[in-house]
TrEMBL record, chain A:
NCBIfam families: LLM_CE1758_fam (TIGR04036). The keyword Transferase does not apply. It comes from Nonomuraea maritima. GO terms for molecular function: monooxygenase activity; oxidoreductase activity, acting on paired donors, with incorporation or reduction of molecular oxygen. This is Putative luciferase-like monooxygenase, FMN-dependent, CE1758 family. GO terms for cellular component: cytosol.
UniProtKB/TrEMBL annotation, chain B:
Pfam families: FMN_red. Coiled coil: none annotated. Keywords: Flavoprotein, FMN, Oxidoreductase. It comes from Nonomuraea maritima. InterPro entries: CE1759_FMN_reduct, Flavoprotein-like_sf, FMN_Rdtase-like_dom, NAD(P)H-dep_FMN_reductase. One of its GO terms (molecular function) is oxidoreductase activity. SUPFAM superfamilies: Flavoproteins. This is FMN reductase. Residues 1-147 form the NADPH-dependent FMN reductase-like domain. The keyword ATP-binding does not apply.
């Protein structure tokens, strides 16, 4: 099982001192956080993609390429890459290039994006969000698997005799996750391709995600990729920890109360009861995270949102220390218990390459 | 048969609730419907939180589910500044915009003076028409004076208007096919989704 963090990349004023980081400080902080993730033994760092203030990460592969150069093991990913408004040809090229510079430590998560104006800024229409996600991904999938592509669709200029370069490392396209907050069409898309499905698991009550994930698992089996239990599921989560849970609540409350996404709404207590947000001791985080398996089945990737709402870098790094030292080692051990042997790990470049070589050997 | 009554009265007891109860009782007598009354006052914070967080908490989603599943709806609001109250509109903003499609709805409103009664026609009726509900022709407005005499030689009294509206709603409820619950787990097979995008 993989553990990691995902970052929205928001520039938010620290409500406790009124200090707002510059874009430069925030970008450097994201890099520091990614390096720290590897240092404390996490497996994955994923960055968001945004094209409007107050968010900084508009150019994920630039950032991830730099992080790749300064890490050894960390898998570099996204949460999410906008499949609706980016040109699928450019996604194919950018992430294949990243795969080469990172020696395969790359996967990515497709998302539609829910900021209305971004669509017209990139010449698209938000009402076509799902058709864009379907058509663009179909093209991306082809570009990584066929050396010469002839293609025509609704949304992009046609291609004749086009080769996306560089070709994926070792002829193995990066593994793709599809992220969705509410759309069964995306669960269906992930299942069709045998790709991973990531439930952001931050906002809505768990029953909603249970339905989406169970739909994905059933359809994954329907399309012949394996049993429902073998489908590749990732989950988000959101935590803040201190040794004593009262300290965690006291310290996190002003950040929660002023957070751009849910601040000035429900109380911290109501929100933790209704969503997977956990604010408390490392043991509370362990207990809550282990419950996810009961709701969603054995899964492959757990990402935590740690650096948002104006939390200072120093605090985030402390959180990562706690996560890496006290939480994740226990989670690894507990999640491994009673895990059926047929439940696979999340695909990596190495595992996909091995599978490819094996099928070629069998085919030969 | 399930009838849900949504009232946005703020005081306790409120004249909106009083009107809602009289409408509900008149419909129940005609249909034997099972009546559930929802006081939006009790959900005011949950509705506001839904706006801020983007999801309904457990208490609010249970009410939204009941409204969605109801065979008929009675919706009553006080008239504020010439229209429905903000809380009334907010509740219907967080209900899914397909939840009321085809649903028989009786609308009512209360206010200090009968001069505001056309707010029912200018504000409430278009709201429910937008939501594709079937709104009965008689909308019932109760001004303060209606709780006394209210009737004159040229106008029906409150009781007459309640009876007429209840007849209309009961008639629709009796002739309505049972609500088909949409299959939430139904999926459009991916091949069909792809095929729909193929250039002509």
């Amino acid at each position: 099982m993989q553990f990691g963090i995902f970052s929205v990349g928001d520039v938010t004023t620290d409500p406790t001192n009124g200090r707002t980081p510059t874009e430069h400080e925030r970008i450097k902080a994201m890099v520091t956080i990614a390096l720290k993730a590897e240092e404390v033994g996490l497996d994955v760092f994923a960055t968001g993609e945004h094209h409007n203030p107050p968010f900084v990460p508009s150019s994920p592969t630039t950032m991830l390429g730099y992080i790749a150069a300064r890490t050894e093991r960390l898998i570099l990913s996204t949460a999410t890459t906008l499949i609706t408004t980016n040109d699928p040809v450019k996604i194919a090229e950018d992430f294949a290039m990243l795969q080469h510079v990172a020696d395969g430590r790359v996967d990515l998560m497709m998302g539609r994006g829910n900021t209305g104006p971004v669509y017209p800024w990139f010449g698209q229409d938000i009402r076509q969000g799902i058709p864009l996600a379907i058509e663009n991904y179909a093209l991306l999938h082809k570009l990584w698997r066929e050396d010469v592509v002839d293609w025509e669709g609704r949304f992009r200029t046609p291609l004749q005799g086009f080769t996306s370069t560089p070709r994926p490392l070792d002829g193995v396209p990066p593994f793709v996750w599809h992220g969705s907050i509410r759309s069964p069409e995306i669960a269906e898309q992930a299942a069709y391709y045998g790709d991973g499905f990531f439930a952001n698991n931050i906002f809505w009550p768990k029953e909603h995600y249970m339905r989406l994930i169970s739909l994905y698992r059933q359809r994954y089996a329907h399309y012949g990729h394996g049993t429902p239990e073998q489908a590749i599921v990732g989950l988000g989560g959101q935590v803040f920890m201190r040794k004593n849970s009262q300290d965690a609540v006291r310290e996190f409350r002003p950040y929660f109360d002023n957070a751009p996404v849910y601040g000035h709404g429900p109380s911290l207590e109501e929100f933790t009861a209704e969503t997977p947000l956990t604010v408390g001791s490392p043991q509370q985080v362990i207990d809550r995270t282990l419950e996810f398996r009961e709701y969603f089945g054995d899964y492959q990737r757990q990402l935590f949102l740690m650096d948002h709402a104006g939390l200072p870098l120093k605090t985030v790094l402390e959180q990562l220390d706690i996560l890496g030292e006290e939480v994740v080692p226990v989670l690894r051990k507990e999640f491994a218990k009673d895990r059926p042997a047929e439940v696979p790990d999340a695909p990596t470049h190495a595992s996909l390459l091995a599978a490819k070589n094996q099928s070629e050997t069998v085919g030969a | 048969m399930k009838l849900v009554v949504v009232t946005a009265g703020l005081t306790q007891p409120s004249s909106s609730r009083l009107l809602a109860d009289r409408l509900a009782e008149a419909v129940r007598q005609r249909t034997e419907a099972e009546v559930r009354v929802v006081e939006l006052r009790e959900l005011a914070v949950d509705v506001a939180n839904n706006f801020v967080t983007g999801f309904a908490n457990a208490r609010l989603s249970e009410v939204i589910e009941a409204v969605t599943e109801a065979d008929g709806l009675i919706a009553v609001t006080p008239i504020f500044s010439g229209s429905y109250s903000g809380l009334f509109k907010s509740f219907f903003d967080v209900v899914d915009n397909t939840a009321l499609t085809g649903k028989p709805v009786l609308i009512g409103a209360t206010g200090g003076t009968a001069r505001h009664s056309l707010a029912l026609e200018h504000a409430l009726r278009p709201l429910f028409t937008y939501l594709r509900a079937v709104v009965v022709p008689t909308a019932v407005y109760a001004a303060s004076e209606d709780w006394g005499g209210g009737r004159d030689a040229f106008t029906d009294g409150l009781g007459d208007r309640i009876a007429r509206a209840a007849d209309e709603l009961a008639d629709l409820l009796r002739h309505r096919a049972p609500r088909q619950r949409p299959d939430e787990d139904a999926v459009v097979p991916f091949a069909d989704q792809l095929a729909a995008l193929r250039p002509e």
